[in-house]
Design goal:
FAD/NAD(P)-binding domain, 512 residues, 17 helices, Enolase-like, domain 1, alpha/beta, five-stranded antiparallel beta sheet
Protein backbone atom coordinates (compact mmCIF):
# COMPACT_ATOMS: atom_id res chain seq x y z
CA UNK A 1 0.00 0.00 0.00
CA UNK A 2 1.35 3.43 -0.87
CA UNK A 3 1.54 6.01 1.94
CA UNK A 4 -1.02 8.27 0.20
CA UNK A 5 -4.10 6.52 1.66
CA UNK A 6 -2.60 6.83 5.14
CA UNK A 7 -1.92 10.54 4.72
CA UNK A 8 -5.35 11.24 3.28
CA UNK A 9 -6.95 9.48 6.25
CA UNK A 10 -4.84 11.40 8.76
CA UNK A 11 -2.70 8.46 9.87
CA UNK A 12 0.99 8.52 10.68
CA UNK A 13 3.51 6.91 10.46
CA UNK A 14 3.51 4.72 7.37
CA UNK A 15 4.14 1.36 9.04
CA UNK A 16 2.77 -2.15 8.88
CA UNK A 17 0.29 -1.60 11.71
CA UNK A 18 -1.31 1.46 10.12
CA UNK A 19 -1.43 -0.26 6.74
CA UNK A 20 -3.22 -3.23 8.32
CA UNK A 21 -5.61 -0.83 10.02
CA UNK A 22 -6.52 0.92 6.78
CA UNK A 23 -6.84 -2.34 4.84
CA UNK A 24 -9.53 -3.35 7.35
CA UNK A 25 -11.49 -0.16 8.02
CA UNK A 26 -11.05 1.80 4.77
CA UNK A 27 -9.63 -0.52 2.09
CA UNK A 28 -8.14 1.55 -0.75
CA UNK A 29 -9.39 -0.96 -3.32
CA UNK A 30 -12.96 -1.11 -1.96
CA UNK A 31 -15.71 -1.20 -4.58
CA UNK A 32 -19.04 0.16 -3.43
CA UNK A 33 -21.95 -2.14 -4.22
CA UNK A 34 -24.66 -1.18 -6.70
CA UNK A 35 -27.87 -0.47 -4.77
CA UNK A 36 -31.06 -2.06 -6.02
CA UNK A 37 -34.48 -1.60 -4.53
CA UNK A 38 -35.34 -0.07 -1.20
CA UNK A 39 -33.37 -0.65 2.01
CA UNK A 40 -35.03 -1.38 5.33
CA UNK A 41 -32.29 0.66 7.02
CA UNK A 42 -29.57 2.96 5.72
CA UNK A 43 -26.98 4.03 8.28
CA UNK A 44 -24.87 7.16 7.97
CA UNK A 45 -21.70 6.54 9.97
CA UNK A 46 -19.65 3.47 10.81
CA UNK A 47 -18.69 4.19 14.41
CA UNK A 48 -19.97 2.29 17.47
CA UNK A 49 -23.66 3.19 16.95
CA UNK A 50 -23.58 2.52 13.23
CA UNK A 51 -21.75 -0.79 13.55
CA UNK A 52 -24.08 -2.12 16.25
CA UNK A 53 -27.15 -1.06 14.27
CA UNK A 54 -25.80 -2.58 11.04
CA UNK A 55 -24.91 -5.95 12.56
CA UNK A 56 -28.20 -6.13 14.47
CA UNK A 57 -30.37 -5.17 11.51
CA UNK A 58 -28.59 -7.51 9.10
CA UNK A 59 -28.76 -10.31 11.68
CA UNK A 60 -32.52 -9.89 11.79
CA UNK A 61 -32.74 -10.19 8.02
CA UNK A 62 -33.27 -6.50 7.27
CA UNK A 63 -31.85 -5.15 4.03
CA UNK A 64 -29.15 -2.87 5.40
CA UNK A 65 -26.64 -0.36 4.04
CA UNK A 66 -23.92 1.48 5.96
CA UNK A 67 -22.04 4.56 4.73
CA UNK A 68 -18.70 5.70 6.17
CA UNK A 69 -16.62 8.57 4.78
CA UNK A 70 -13.55 8.02 6.94
CA UNK A 71 -12.53 5.00 9.06
CA UNK A 72 -14.94 2.27 10.11
CA UNK A 73 -14.81 1.82 13.86
CA UNK A 74 -15.14 5.56 14.39
CA UNK A 75 -13.37 7.41 17.17
CA UNK A 76 -13.48 4.45 19.56
CA UNK A 77 -11.23 2.18 17.52
CA UNK A 78 -9.10 4.73 15.74
CA UNK A 79 -8.60 7.82 17.92
CA UNK A 80 -10.45 7.16 21.15
CA UNK A 81 -11.03 4.24 23.51
CA UNK A 82 -8.56 1.71 22.09
CA UNK A 83 -5.46 3.87 21.46
CA UNK A 84 -5.99 5.95 24.61
CA UNK A 85 -6.27 2.92 26.88
CA UNK A 86 -3.19 1.37 25.27
CA UNK A 87 -1.33 4.61 26.02
CA UNK A 88 -2.67 4.68 29.58
CA UNK A 89 -1.59 1.08 30.13
CA UNK A 90 1.99 1.95 29.18
CA UNK A 91 1.94 5.09 31.34
CA UNK A 92 0.59 3.16 34.32
CA UNK A 93 3.28 0.50 33.90
CA UNK A 94 5.97 3.17 33.98
CA UNK A 95 4.39 4.70 37.08
CA UNK A 96 4.24 1.31 38.82
CA UNK A 97 7.94 0.68 38.22
CA UNK A 98 8.84 4.20 39.32
CA UNK A 99 7.01 3.70 42.64
CA UNK A 100 7.71 0.02 43.27
CA UNK A 101 9.83 0.84 46.32
CA UNK A 102 6.69 1.43 48.39
CA UNK A 103 6.18 -2.34 48.22
CA UNK A 104 9.79 -3.10 49.08
CA UNK A 105 10.70 -3.69 45.44
CA UNK A 106 13.81 -1.72 44.51
CA UNK A 107 14.68 -1.24 40.86
CA UNK A 108 16.20 1.28 38.51
CA UNK A 109 14.00 4.12 37.23
CA UNK A 110 12.07 3.05 34.12
CA UNK A 111 13.37 3.92 30.68
CA UNK A 112 10.40 4.89 28.53
CA UNK A 113 10.86 4.05 24.85
CA UNK A 114 8.10 6.28 23.52
CA UNK A 115 8.32 5.12 19.88
CA UNK A 116 7.91 1.54 21.14
CA UNK A 117 4.96 2.56 23.32
CA UNK A 118 3.22 4.05 20.29
CA UNK A 119 4.14 1.10 18.06
CA UNK A 120 2.46 -1.21 20.58
CA UNK A 121 -0.64 0.98 20.50
CA UNK A 122 -0.80 0.94 16.70
CA UNK A 123 -0.34 -2.82 16.61
CA UNK A 124 -3.14 -3.36 19.13
CA UNK A 125 -5.43 -1.10 17.12
CA UNK A 126 -4.67 -2.95 13.91
CA UNK A 127 -5.22 -6.31 15.63
CA UNK A 128 -8.68 -5.26 16.83
CA UNK A 129 -9.64 -3.58 13.53
CA UNK A 130 -10.89 -6.69 11.65
CA UNK A 131 -13.87 -6.81 14.02
CA UNK A 132 -15.00 -3.46 12.56
CA UNK A 133 -13.82 -4.13 9.02
CA UNK A 134 -15.65 -3.50 5.77
CA UNK A 135 -15.25 -7.11 4.72
CA UNK A 136 -16.66 -8.48 7.98
CA UNK A 137 -19.79 -6.39 7.61
CA UNK A 138 -20.06 -7.31 3.97
CA UNK A 139 -20.01 -10.96 5.07
CA UNK A 140 -22.75 -10.18 7.61
CA UNK A 141 -24.96 -9.07 4.72
CA UNK A 142 -24.48 -5.30 5.01
CA UNK A 143 -23.93 -3.22 1.87
CA UNK A 144 -20.91 -1.11 2.88
CA UNK A 145 -20.38 2.18 1.04
CA UNK A 146 -17.19 4.20 1.56
CA UNK A 147 -17.74 7.83 0.77
CA UNK A 148 -19.54 10.98 1.85
CA UNK A 149 -23.26 10.40 2.30
CA UNK A 150 -25.85 13.17 2.26
CA UNK A 151 -29.63 13.35 2.13
CA UNK A 152 -31.14 13.89 -1.32
CA UNK A 153 -34.77 13.74 -0.16
CA UNK A 154 -36.78 12.68 2.93
CA UNK A 155 -36.28 9.01 1.98
CA UNK A 156 -33.10 9.01 -0.11
CA UNK A 157 -29.39 9.27 0.67
CA UNK A 158 -26.78 9.90 -2.02
CA UNK A 159 -23.22 8.54 -1.85
CA UNK A 160 -20.64 8.42 -4.62
CA UNK A 161 -23.17 9.40 -7.28
CA UNK A 162 -25.59 6.62 -6.28
CA UNK A 163 -28.92 7.00 -4.53
CA UNK A 164 -30.03 4.71 -1.69
CA UNK A 165 -33.76 4.68 -1.02
CA UNK A 166 -34.78 3.70 2.51
CA UNK A 167 -37.74 2.86 4.66
CA UNK A 168 -35.81 3.99 7.72
CA UNK A 169 -32.45 5.70 8.18
CA UNK A 170 -30.08 6.20 11.10
CA UNK A 171 -27.69 9.13 11.50
CA UNK A 172 -24.69 7.95 13.52
CA UNK A 173 -21.97 10.28 12.29
CA UNK A 174 -20.46 10.99 15.72
CA UNK A 175 -18.59 14.13 16.73
CA UNK A 176 -15.18 15.75 16.36
CA UNK A 177 -12.95 17.81 18.66
CA UNK A 178 -14.16 21.35 19.27
CA UNK A 179 -11.55 24.05 18.69
CA UNK A 180 -11.80 27.48 20.32
CA UNK A 181 -11.66 30.60 18.17
CA UNK A 182 -8.22 31.73 19.34
CA UNK A 183 -5.92 33.81 17.11
CA UNK A 184 -3.04 31.72 15.79
CA UNK A 185 -4.45 28.39 16.96
CA UNK A 186 -5.33 27.04 13.52
CA UNK A 187 -1.88 27.88 12.17
CA UNK A 188 0.05 26.52 15.17
CA UNK A 189 -0.42 22.82 14.41
CA UNK A 190 -2.08 21.78 17.67
CA UNK A 191 -2.94 18.29 18.84
CA UNK A 192 -6.41 16.84 19.44
CA UNK A 193 -7.54 13.29 20.10
CA UNK A 194 -7.63 12.87 16.30
CA UNK A 195 -3.88 13.27 15.79
CA UNK A 196 -2.21 12.86 19.19
CA UNK A 197 -1.91 9.11 18.57
CA UNK A 198 0.18 9.82 15.47
CA UNK A 199 3.05 11.01 17.68
CA UNK A 200 6.32 9.12 17.49
CA UNK A 201 8.36 11.53 19.63
CA UNK A 202 7.52 12.25 23.26
CA UNK A 203 6.53 15.91 23.72
CA UNK A 204 9.13 17.79 25.76
CA UNK A 205 6.52 20.10 27.32
CA UNK A 206 2.86 19.37 26.61
CA UNK A 207 0.22 21.99 27.41
CA UNK A 208 -3.28 20.53 27.73
CA UNK A 209 -6.22 22.89 27.29
CA UNK A 210 -9.29 21.46 29.02
CA UNK A 211 -10.54 19.99 32.27
CA UNK A 212 -12.71 17.06 31.19
CA UNK A 213 -12.01 13.33 30.91
CA UNK A 214 -9.79 13.43 27.79
CA UNK A 215 -7.73 16.32 29.16
CA UNK A 216 -7.20 14.65 32.54
CA UNK A 217 -6.44 11.19 31.16
CA UNK A 218 -3.88 12.36 28.62
CA UNK A 219 -2.27 14.91 30.93
CA UNK A 220 -1.58 12.17 33.46
CA UNK A 221 -0.48 9.68 30.81
CA UNK A 222 2.08 11.97 29.18
CA UNK A 223 3.40 13.08 32.56
CA UNK A 224 3.93 9.45 33.58
CA UNK A 225 5.67 8.79 30.27
CA UNK A 226 8.12 11.61 30.96
CA UNK A 227 6.73 14.84 29.45
CA UNK A 228 6.57 18.07 31.37
CA UNK A 229 2.83 18.77 31.46
CA UNK A 230 0.85 21.94 32.11
CA UNK A 231 -2.94 21.77 32.25
CA UNK A 232 -4.93 24.94 31.54
CA UNK A 233 -8.43 24.47 32.93
CA UNK A 234 -11.13 26.82 31.72
CA UNK A 235 -13.06 26.24 34.97
CA UNK A 236 -12.16 26.30 38.65
CA UNK A 237 -12.07 22.51 38.97
CA UNK A 238 -11.55 19.30 37.02
CA UNK A 239 -14.30 16.95 35.82
CA UNK A 240 -17.08 19.46 36.42
CA UNK A 241 -19.82 16.95 35.59
CA UNK A 242 -18.72 14.63 38.38
CA UNK A 243 -18.99 14.77 42.16
CA UNK A 244 -16.84 17.79 43.21
CA UNK A 245 -14.82 15.60 45.58
CA UNK A 246 -13.89 13.37 42.64
CA UNK A 247 -12.43 16.30 40.73
CA UNK A 248 -10.44 17.39 43.79
CA UNK A 249 -8.94 13.93 44.23
CA UNK A 250 -7.87 13.77 40.59
CA UNK A 251 -6.44 17.29 40.72
CA UNK A 252 -4.50 16.43 43.85
CA UNK A 253 -3.04 13.32 42.25
CA UNK A 254 -2.04 15.19 39.09
CA UNK A 255 -0.26 17.84 41.13
CA UNK A 256 1.54 15.22 43.22
CA UNK A 257 2.77 13.64 40.01
CA UNK A 258 4.11 16.95 38.74
CA UNK A 259 1.37 18.28 36.44
CA UNK A 260 1.17 22.07 36.70
CA UNK A 261 -2.49 23.14 37.02
CA UNK A 262 -3.84 26.58 36.14
CA UNK A 263 -7.49 27.43 36.86
CA UNK A 264 -9.99 29.77 35.15
CA UNK A 265 -7.84 30.20 32.06
CA UNK A 266 -8.89 31.94 28.86
CA UNK A 267 -6.48 31.36 25.99
CA UNK A 268 -5.79 34.59 24.07
CA UNK A 269 -3.20 33.82 21.42
CA UNK A 270 -1.04 30.97 20.14
CA UNK A 271 2.07 31.33 18.01
CA UNK A 272 4.42 28.74 16.56
CA UNK A 273 7.81 30.40 16.50
CA UNK A 274 10.54 29.75 13.89
CA UNK A 275 12.45 27.43 16.25
CA UNK A 276 9.31 25.26 16.61
CA UNK A 277 8.45 26.48 20.12
CA UNK A 278 4.83 27.27 20.91
CA UNK A 279 4.16 30.57 22.66
CA UNK A 280 0.81 30.86 24.47
CA UNK A 281 -0.74 34.01 25.89
CA UNK A 282 -3.66 33.58 28.29
CA UNK A 283 -5.60 35.29 31.03
CA UNK A 284 -5.88 33.57 34.40
CA UNK A 285 -8.59 35.19 36.45
CA UNK A 286 -7.77 38.87 35.86
CA UNK A 287 -4.04 38.45 35.26
CA UNK A 288 -2.28 38.10 31.93
CA UNK A 289 0.25 35.30 31.66
CA UNK A 290 2.22 33.38 29.05
CA UNK A 291 4.26 30.23 28.68
CA UNK A 292 6.25 28.33 26.12
CA UNK A 293 5.87 24.67 25.24
CA UNK A 294 6.63 22.14 22.56
CA UNK A 295 3.05 20.98 21.98
CA UNK A 296 -0.54 22.00 22.73
CA UNK A 297 -3.33 19.44 23.12
CA UNK A 298 -6.85 20.88 22.88
CA UNK A 299 -9.51 18.86 24.71
CA UNK A 300 -12.40 21.22 25.43
CA UNK A 301 -15.36 19.24 24.12
CA UNK A 302 -16.93 17.81 20.99
CA UNK A 303 -18.79 19.18 17.96
CA UNK A 304 -21.47 16.95 16.35
CA UNK A 305 -20.75 15.83 12.78
CA UNK A 306 -24.08 17.01 11.39
CA UNK A 307 -22.80 19.53 8.86
CA UNK A 308 -22.46 18.38 5.28
CA UNK A 309 -25.36 15.91 5.56
CA UNK A 310 -27.85 18.18 3.72
CA UNK A 311 -30.32 17.68 6.56
CA UNK A 312 -32.65 20.31 5.07
CA UNK A 313 -33.41 17.95 2.19
CA UNK A 314 -34.91 15.55 4.73
CA UNK A 315 -36.54 18.14 7.07
CA UNK A 316 -34.23 17.15 9.93
CA UNK A 317 -33.59 19.81 12.55
CA UNK A 318 -30.61 20.38 14.82
CA UNK A 319 -29.80 23.00 17.45
CA UNK A 320 -27.35 25.89 17.14
CA UNK A 321 -24.46 23.62 18.18
CA UNK A 322 -25.28 21.10 15.45
CA UNK A 323 -26.76 18.48 17.77
CA UNK A 324 -29.53 16.64 15.94
CA UNK A 325 -32.86 16.90 17.73
CA UNK A 326 -34.41 13.57 18.71
CA UNK A 327 -37.28 12.47 20.93
CA UNK A 328 -37.04 9.85 23.64
CA UNK A 329 -37.43 7.14 20.98
CA UNK A 330 -34.41 8.65 19.13
CA UNK A 331 -36.59 9.71 16.20
CA UNK A 332 -35.63 12.96 14.46
CA UNK A 333 -38.05 15.57 13.10
CA UNK A 334 -38.29 13.35 10.01
CA UNK A 335 -40.31 10.32 11.21
CA UNK A 336 -38.39 8.06 8.82
CA UNK A 337 -35.01 9.00 10.29
CA UNK A 338 -33.46 8.21 13.66
CA UNK A 339 -30.18 9.29 15.24
CA UNK A 340 -27.84 7.73 17.82
CA UNK A 341 -24.48 8.39 19.41
CA UNK A 342 -22.49 11.59 19.77
CA UNK A 343 -24.31 13.40 16.96
CA UNK A 344 -27.45 13.66 19.10
CA UNK A 345 -26.80 12.55 22.69
CA UNK A 346 -25.33 14.33 25.71
CA UNK A 347 -23.93 10.95 26.84
CA UNK A 348 -20.87 10.79 24.57
CA UNK A 349 -19.65 7.31 25.43
CA UNK A 350 -19.17 4.26 23.23
CA UNK A 351 -21.45 2.13 25.40
CA UNK A 352 -24.18 4.80 25.27
CA UNK A 353 -23.95 4.81 21.47
CA UNK A 354 -24.14 1.00 21.49
CA UNK A 355 -27.37 0.89 23.47
CA UNK A 356 -28.83 3.87 21.64
CA UNK A 357 -28.38 1.86 18.44
CA UNK A 358 -30.22 -1.08 20.01
CA UNK A 359 -33.04 1.28 20.92
CA UNK A 360 -33.19 2.50 17.32
CA UNK A 361 -33.36 -1.03 15.90
CA UNK A 362 -36.35 -1.85 18.06
CA UNK A 363 -38.15 1.39 17.27
CA UNK A 364 -37.23 1.73 13.58
CA UNK A 365 -37.71 -1.81 12.30
CA UNK A 366 -40.55 -2.89 14.58
CA UNK A 367 -43.53 -1.18 16.22
CA UNK A 368 -41.43 -0.56 19.31
CA UNK A 369 -41.73 2.34 21.70
CA UNK A 370 -38.49 1.82 23.60
CA UNK A 371 -37.35 4.93 25.48
CA UNK A 372 -33.72 5.93 25.69
CA UNK A 373 -34.33 7.67 29.02
CA UNK A 374 -35.11 4.31 30.62
CA UNK A 375 -31.55 3.09 30.13
CA UNK A 376 -29.11 3.02 33.05
CA UNK A 377 -25.84 4.38 31.65
CA UNK A 378 -22.67 4.35 33.78
CA UNK A 379 -19.49 6.10 32.69
CA UNK A 380 -15.86 6.25 33.75
CA UNK A 381 -12.88 8.57 33.46
CA UNK A 382 -9.75 6.39 33.36
CA UNK A 383 -7.40 8.56 35.36
CA UNK A 384 -5.63 7.19 38.42
CA UNK A 385 -7.70 7.16 40.54
CA UNK A 386 -10.54 6.29 38.18
CA UNK A 387 -13.81 8.21 38.45
CA UNK A 388 -17.02 6.31 37.69
CA UNK A 389 -20.61 7.39 37.99
CA UNK A 390 -24.10 6.08 37.29
CA UNK A 391 -27.35 7.93 37.73
CA UNK A 392 -27.37 11.03 39.88
CA UNK A 393 -24.59 12.71 41.80
CA UNK A 394 -25.44 14.79 44.85
CA UNK A 395 -25.31 17.96 42.75
CA UNK A 396 -27.52 16.66 39.93
CA UNK A 397 -30.04 15.23 42.41
CA UNK A 398 -30.32 18.61 44.14
CA UNK A 399 -30.58 20.37 40.77
CA UNK A 400 -33.72 18.43 39.83
CA UNK A 401 -35.22 18.64 43.33
CA UNK A 402 -34.71 14.96 44.15
CA UNK A 403 -34.40 14.42 47.89
CA UNK A 404 -31.74 11.83 48.59
CA UNK A 405 -29.73 10.26 51.36
CA UNK A 406 -26.16 9.22 50.62
CA UNK A 407 -23.87 6.60 52.11
CA UNK A 408 -20.11 6.89 51.68
CA UNK A 409 -17.33 4.38 52.31
CA UNK A 410 -13.75 5.54 51.90
CA UNK A 411 -11.19 3.13 50.51
CA UNK A 412 -8.82 4.16 53.30
CA UNK A 413 -10.92 1.91 55.55
CA UNK A 414 -11.21 -0.99 53.08
CA UNK A 415 -8.70 -3.75 53.76
CA UNK A 416 -7.96 -4.64 50.13
CA UNK A 417 -7.30 -1.00 49.26
CA UNK A 418 -4.83 -0.81 52.13
CA UNK A 419 -2.94 -3.93 51.06
CA UNK A 420 -2.74 -2.61 47.48
CA UNK A 421 -1.89 0.95 48.54
CA UNK A 422 -4.86 2.29 46.57
CA UNK A 423 -6.58 4.12 49.42
CA UNK A 424 -7.43 7.31 47.53
CA UNK A 425 -11.13 7.53 46.82
CA UNK A 426 -14.54 6.38 47.98
CA UNK A 427 -17.83 4.69 47.15
CA UNK A 428 -20.85 6.99 47.47
CA UNK A 429 -24.33 5.60 46.87
CA UNK A 430 -27.46 7.77 46.76
CA UNK A 431 -30.93 6.50 47.63
CA UNK A 432 -34.28 8.21 47.39
CA UNK A 433 -35.02 9.72 50.78
CA UNK A 434 -37.18 7.41 52.87
CA UNK A 435 -36.40 4.28 50.81
CA UNK A 436 -33.50 2.10 49.66
CA UNK A 437 -34.10 2.83 45.96
CA UNK A 438 -30.68 3.54 44.41
CA UNK A 439 -30.78 6.67 42.26
CA UNK A 440 -27.06 7.12 41.66
CA UNK A 441 -23.53 6.37 42.71
CA UNK A 442 -20.02 7.75 42.38
CA UNK A 443 -16.94 5.59 42.80
CA UNK A 444 -13.46 7.11 42.85
CA UNK A 445 -10.52 4.77 43.14
CA UNK A 446 -8.68 1.85 41.60
CA UNK A 447 -10.88 -0.19 39.23
CA UNK A 448 -13.84 2.18 39.73
CA UNK A 449 -14.91 1.48 36.14
CA UNK A 450 -15.28 -2.20 36.98
CA UNK A 451 -16.96 -1.61 40.34
CA UNK A 452 -19.63 0.77 39.05
CA UNK A 453 -21.22 -2.02 37.03
CA UNK A 454 -22.41 -3.71 40.22
CA UNK A 455 -24.37 -0.62 41.19
CA UNK A 456 -25.62 -0.15 37.61
CA UNK A 457 -26.83 -3.76 37.61
CA UNK A 458 -28.67 -3.21 40.88
CA UNK A 459 -30.31 -0.07 39.50
CA UNK A 460 -31.35 -1.74 36.25
CA UNK A 461 -32.77 -4.71 38.18
CA UNK A 462 -34.50 -2.37 40.68
CA UNK A 463 -32.54 -3.94 43.47
CA UNK A 464 -32.39 -1.75 46.59
CA UNK A 465 -29.38 -0.87 48.68
CA UNK A 466 -30.69 -3.03 51.53
CA UNK A 467 -30.57 -6.04 49.22
CA UNK A 468 -27.00 -5.26 48.17
CA UNK A 469 -26.01 -5.61 51.83
CA UNK A 470 -27.15 -9.24 51.67
CA UNK A 471 -24.94 -10.08 48.68
CA UNK A 472 -21.84 -11.94 49.89
CA UNK A 473 -18.70 -10.31 48.51
CA UNK A 474 -15.35 -12.14 48.56
CA UNK A 475 -12.93 -10.90 51.18
CA UNK A 476 -10.71 -8.99 50.71
CA UNK A 477 -11.95 -7.06 47.67
CA UNK A 478 -12.55 -3.42 46.84
CA UNK A 479 -16.19 -4.25 46.09
CA UNK A 480 -16.76 -4.80 49.79
CA UNK A 481 -17.14 -1.03 50.04
CA UNK A 482 -20.40 -1.33 48.08
CA UNK A 483 -21.76 -3.91 50.51
CA UNK A 484 -20.64 -1.78 53.43
CA UNK A 485 -22.73 1.10 52.09
CA UNK A 486 -25.64 -1.32 52.22
CA UNK A 487 -24.79 -2.18 55.82
CA UNK A 488 -24.74 1.52 56.64
CA UNK A 489 -28.20 1.90 55.13
CA UNK A 490 -29.58 -1.04 57.09
CA UNK A 491 -28.31 0.49 60.32
CA UNK A 492 -30.50 3.54 59.65
CA UNK A 493 -33.53 1.24 59.75
CA UNK A 494 -32.78 0.43 63.38
CA UNK A 495 -35.00 3.17 64.79
CA UNK A 496 -35.46 4.01 68.48
CA UNK A 497 -38.74 2.12 68.47
CA UNK A 498 -37.11 -0.94 66.91
CA UNK A 499 -34.28 -0.81 69.45
CA UNK A 500 -36.82 -0.72 72.30
CA UNK A 501 -38.56 -3.86 71.03
CA UNK A 502 -35.21 -5.63 70.47
CA UNK A 503 -34.09 -4.77 74.01
CA UNK A 504 -37.36 -6.12 75.44
CA UNK A 505 -37.05 -9.30 73.38
CA UNK A 506 -33.45 -9.93 74.49
CA UNK A 507 -34.29 -9.27 78.16
CA UNK A 508 -37.25 -11.63 77.98
CA UNK A 509 -35.09 -14.37 76.47
CA UNK A 510 -32.37 -13.86 79.09
CA UNK A 511 -34.90 -14.31 81.90
CA UNK A 512 -36.55 -17.45 80.52
Amino acid sequence: MSPDPLMSLGLHPDDDANRRLVSAVHPPDWQNPIPSGRYDLVILGGGPAGLVAASSAAGLGARTAMIERHLLGGDCLNVGCIPSKALLAAANAAHAVRHAARFGIHTSPPVVDFPEVMARMRNLRATIAPHDSARRFQELGVDVFLGHGRFASPDTIEVGGRELRFRRALIATGARPALPNVPGLAQAGVLTNENVFNLTTLPRHLVVLGSGPIACELAQAFRRLGSEVTLLARRDRLLSREDPEAGKLVANRLQIEGVSLHWNVVLDHVERRPDGTLHLDFVQGSKAASLEASDLLVAIGRTPNSDGLALHHASIQCDSAGTIQVDDHLRTTNPRVFAAGDVCLPHRFTHAADFAARTVIQNALFPGRKRFSKLTIPHCTFTDPEVAQVGHSLASAHAVGLRVTHFTRRFASVDRARTDDTTDGFVRILVRQGSDQIVGATIVGAHAGELISEVATAMAARMGLASLANVIHPYPTLAEAIRQCGDDYNRTRLTASARTWIDRWLRWNRNR
